[in-house]
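Folding Query — how this chain folds
Tokens — whole-number codes for backbone shape
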Amino acid sequence: MARGDERFASKRAINANNVAFRRHWIVSHPFPAHNGFKVSCTLLMHQLRREGHKIVNVDARVYHYSPRGWRFFYWRALVTGRDADRKFVALHAPSRSQRIVKSFSRWWTMSWRTTRRVLSHAPQTGMPLWQIPFSLVVGLAFYTLAFLGHFSLAAGLVSDEIESA
């Protein structure tokens, strides 16, 4: 929400498109190589925190365009799920069964969060009542596809290959 979301902003990972470094500094602290689309960003953030660097979130807001069609929506959801599994593996080194359990718990958490946020923010955004069910369907479809991406990688149904858009 454009009026502020400090609770979530403080937890958000850095991404290559939402962070700034001085060139000479980032050259000596490069993003770790990883197959995941955004996993390298999360790994760098954790590395910097371990080294004692403070990550400062500024009060900046951006508006994103809507997804570029259903194919992009489908691809991005699957990548989101696979990246969630990759991050879990890189940060916690879990067993395959723990990874599978995590895919289900993340699906539940994200589905609940999506439902709660759509319902609580709809009045602030001016969303008409009749649009709320459609918004919920889109959000829940995204996280169900993300679950499929997460579960399929965790269960070994797909190989861990380098993601590209």
